[in-house]
Amino acid sequence: MKKTKTSKNKKVEMRSEYDFAGKTGVRGKYYQDYRRGHTVRIHKANGTVATQHFTLQEGAVMLEPDVRKFFPNSESVNKALRSLISLIPDKPTRRRATDEGPD
User: Fold this and answer.
1) What three-state secondary structure class fits 89?
2) How many domains does the chain have?
3) pLDDT for the residue numbered 84
4) Residue 55 lies in a domain
């Protein structure tokens, strides 16, 4: 097999049909919809349509971008949560009648 050489200095131009001006290039446009779940329809060459609905798997948690900066993987998230769990008292304390507020 021959290897083909590629030019390292090849300038990649953006095609004119990829115009991101205006509302077409809005960051996070479908973020909330994606979190709720989304449906993908695949139109096949034979004319049939395959439909799949995707949601977060059981036990999966989606981190917000600002939190993800501090917890880049499952191990770091679990470590932080375990340290918080150790702060939770074993038995919840009962509130006294005076602490419950006005009737």
Assistant:
1) coil
2) 1
3) 93
4) yes
Segments forming the whole domain that contains residue 73: 28-89
Name the residue among 56, 61, 85, 82 with its Cα closest to residue 73.
61
* pLDDT per residue as tens digits for the range 62-99: 888 899 899 989 899 999 999 999 898 887 666 666 55
How far apart (Å, rounded) are the C-alpha atoms in residues 31 and 1? 45
What pLDDT score does 79 carry? 94
pLDDT tens-digit readout, 28-66: 777 777 778 878 899 999 999 999 888 877 888 888 889
C-alpha dihedral sign at 45, 50, 53, 58: negative
Six token digits for residue 71? 């917890």
Q: Note whether residue 52 is domain-resident.
A: yes
Q: How far apart are CA 92 and CA 89, in angstroms?
A: 6
Contact 80, 71 (CB under 8 A): yes
Tokens of 74: 């499952």
